[in-house]
Design a protein that fits this description.
The complex is a heterodimer of chains A (384) and B (348). In chain A, a hairpin with a 3-residue loop joins β6 and β7. Chain A is elongated. Chain A is built from eleven helices and eight strands. With 384 residues, chain A is an alpha+beta fold. Chain B starts with a strand and ends with a helix. Chain B has 348 residues and is an alpha/beta fold. The radius of gyration of chain B is 22 Å and the shape is globular. Classes of the chains: A alpha+beta (384), B alpha/beta (348). At the A-B interface, α3, α8, α9, α10 and β3 of A face α4, α5, α7, α8 and α9 of B.
């Protein structure tokens, strides 16, 4: 019977709203009754952890009032002023409730000490918010400082001695002094969690800015590997080594490169023979880019644009059943369009990249078709 | 508060989407075997986030294979033999074969020795972590914790260092530790020191990735380092900080915990499930994720005793001998010995 009475008293004290009486969510009550036999600090930590003290399960009027102006969706382009107002909309009801709580516990020094300590730190945050200080400038604005840690029975960075107050007052849990301190402690945990929520909202731009920057870098890395010239393993090792040096020089922070060396890069292309018939003008060809470079700039859309490159090339040509090598120079634009000019026995040769070959072939066909159509039209007109 | 995110980071291997399903099921199942689950239901409190980056290694292999194929096709079409080009193309397409080395060890080699690949992986992982946090309700506090395994410990270490280092450039967006750092960082089969690189941070003990009692620095509230004594992979250049790392106060608060287990259920001691089935691994995690007192010592002892009683000691005695033979010195740095050990281990 004593245990049932203790459960009832505990639920009443901890879950009683700080304002007008309101029904708690049933699950918070069942959690409270589930831990009623445990030490007060464990009970409070459990309720805190499951969101019954200032969290999403808490229907206490203070929680409702303090979170009324915190939207679930972070508003796009929220200004610093809006963030500050949102934070103050949490702090103001907390400070108001703290004033009431102080007057309730005026006669109990231990309980009063907790509430005074809370009042002091919340006021510091309020002053920082009003003065438009940023998280960099004032550690009180770090949300994690307000987080209750059941592993050490302390907050992350604010000094409100809940554990020692409960320890000192709760040698016997049912004593009035213990009950008062537990009630104060539950109020403090609720209030600090609300402040933590306000600060988490206020600090959200840090997350969004970092995500934007990393998304941009991610897009560039994808483009580096997929939109530039494919790097074979040995090329990746060399370019990797060079990038590694940049990374090391910049203490582990470097943007995706804007160039790549090309080494011993086998290429397939199309040998272009302008004097051949249309169906024999482009023939498969193979070469090796011996040494070259490809450079570009990053656009605002994270594409590798204005790309150009040049390489020294050796191409292979069939000469009477054996391979003959022709040396030349490759010029490349937009990563995929290249023309190689070779010279052998005083005669120039051309090799086009597959993309350029398609383009040339398509254009030439289109021109010839247009010319044929033009000739036909002229003939028709002349005959009328 | 909103559900706590448990972020899972895989190690080397042929992982694809939903790779973590078994790990999630195991954690959920083990949690529900303890009384704490009656007060704090798992699915009410936690939500998993699976990180994927293996596809980036696969992309590299596919790109080499495709580029080489174009050259080989052109040679066949043209009738050219072009020996040098053929040799290079063949060399480039070899990593694309689906051998164990290519689908597993090549990942590690690419991450460790090819900085652009590593940086792409780190960026992709950072995006996934931040995106998961962004999706949480803005009016709630989102707690998150990270469980990493094997190669994932190195990737996670590097990502967190870049996220919370005081040298992080402003252009990347400052991430104050006191605003965003994870609560628990659990590194299982930790190879972050083995794979540390001067291009990022030459000494992981000096990096930003350490627990801290202060919210002004450090990449986590708690750092759990888990190693199975019989797992040869995290042994070379072992992660083993001094007793006062990262600082005496944080250590006094038990914010760094070294969890050494030595059970052998089967020879695959490196497997993540092998680690997490052991109560000595998952109990400290559950305590930090909930309220420690709700998983009391008596219940923990019973769970450990039951687990130990079910381990087939006799069966694994022979396997233990094989593993003993593979064990290198704690400070072994000779890569040829390390590679021989790795090949031998996976041929067991």
């Amino acid at each position: 019977m004593l245990r049932s009475l203790r459960t009832l008293v505990y639920c009443f004290l901890v879950l009683l709203p700080t304002g007008r009486a309101a029904a708690q969510a049933p699950d918070c009550t069942s959690v409270a009754s589930g831990v009623a036999a445990l030490e007060p600090l464990v009970q409070l930590s459990t309720l805190y952890r499951v969101g019954c003290l200032g969290g999403s399960r808490d229907t206490d009027p203070l929680t409702v009032a303090a979170t009324r102006s915190l939207p679930e969706q972070f508003p796009d382009g929220a200004s610093k002023r809006e963030l500050r107002l949102a934070l103050l909309s949490v702090l103001n009801p907390v400070l108001e409730a703290t004033r009431r709580e102080r007057s309730l516990h005026a006669a109990d020094p231990t309980a009063q000490e907790l509430v005074e300590a809370l009042d002091s730190v919340v006021h510091r945050v309020q002053r920082a918010a009003i003065a438009e200080l940023s998280g960099d400038e004032l550690r009180e604005l770090d949300a994690l400082r307000w987080s209750w840690d059941p592993s050490i029975n302390a907050f992350g960075g604010i000094d409100i001695p809940i554990a020692s107050a409960i320890s000192a007052s709760c040698a016997t849990p049912s004593q009035p002094a213990c009950e008062r301190v537990v009630r104060s402690a539950s109020f403090v945990l609720r209030a600090t969690h609300l402040v933590e929520r306000g600060l988490a909202f206020h600090g959200r731009p840090f997350l969004l800015d970092a995500l934007n920057a990393s998304s941009r870098r991610d897009a560039r890395w994808t483009a580096y590997f997929e939109s530039t010239v494919t790097q074979f393993p040995w090329e990746l090792m060399l370019n990797g080594k060079l990038f590694g040096r940049t990374l090391q020089r910049q203490q582990g922070f470097a943007e995706p490169p804007t160039s790549q060396w090309i080494i011993a890069h086998p290429v397939a292309g199309l040998e272009y023979e302008p004097r051949a018939t249309a169906d024999a003008r482009l023939n498969p060809a193979v070469g090796i880019e011996v040494l070259g470079i490809n450079r570009w700039r990053w656009s605002d859309e994270n594409a590798p644009v204005r790309a150009w490159g040049a390489s020294g090339v050796a191409t292979y040509v069939d000469q009477g059943g054996t391979d003959a090598v022709k040396l030349g120079v490759l010029l490349r634009v937009a990563h995929q369009y290249s023309v190689t000019v070779t010279l052998r026995d005083g005669r120039p040769g051309w090799m086009l990249s597959a993309k350029l070959g398609e383009w040339v072939s398509g254009r030439r066909d289109a021109i010839e078709t247009a010319m044929r159509l033009g000739s036909t039209r002229n003939a028709e007109l002349a005959s009328r | 508060m909103a559900k706590e995110l448990i972020v899972l980071v895989h190690g080397m291997g042929d992982t694809t989407n939903d790779w973590s399903a078994e790990w999630q099921e195991l954690l959920r199942d083990r949690y529900q075997s303890y009384d704490v689950s009656r007060l704090m239901r798992f699915d009410d409190l936690f939500e998993f986030v699976e990180i994927n980056y293996n596809n980036l290694f696969d992309d590299r292999r596919d790109a080499w294979k495709n580029a080489a194929a174009k050259v080989i096709d052109a040679m066949q079409d043209s009738g050219l033999s072009a020996k040098a080009a053929r040799t290079l193309a063949d060399l480039a397409s070899k990593p694309a074969d689906d051998t164990f080395f290519n689908t597993h060890w090549l990942d590690v080699m690419l991450y460790r020795f090819i900085p652009p690949v590593a940086e792409q992986v780190r960026t992709r992982v950072e995006v996934q972590m931040l995106e998961a946090l962004r999706k949480r309700p803005a009016n709630e506090v989102t707690r998150w914790s990270i469980l990493a395994h094997s190669l994932g410990t190195s990737v996670t270490h590097d990502v967190l260092h870049q996220m919370f280092s005081p040298n992080r450039p402003a252009a990347r967006g400052i991430l104050p530790p006191g605003v965003l750092r994870p609560r628990v960082l659990m590194m299982t089969a930790n190879v972050s020191r083995l794979l540390e690189s001067r291009t990022l941070v030459s000494d992981v003990y000096q990096s930003a990735v350490h627990p801290s009692e202060s919210t002004a620095s450090g990449a986590c509230d708690y750092f759990l380092n888990v190693r199975n004594e019989w797992d040869p992979i995290p042994k070379p250049k072992m992660f083993r900080p001094t007793d006062d790392w990262p600082d005496p106060l944080s250590r006094a608060q038990d914010r760094y915990r070294n969890i050494l287990i030595n059970s052998i259920e089967n020879v695959n001691v490196h497997d993540v499930a092998h680690y997490y089935r052991n109560p000595r691994t998952h109990i400290p995690l559950f305590r930090l994720l909930t309220v420690p007192a709700l998983l009391p010592d008596a219940e923990a002892s019973r769970a450990i005793a039951a687990f130990d009683a079910a381990t087939p000691l006799a069966r694994v005695a022979a396997e233990r001998k094989k593993l003993q033979k593979l064990s290198l010195a704690d400070d072994e740095r000779d890569w040829s010995k390390i590679l021989q050990m790795l090949v031998a281990y996976f041929n067991l």
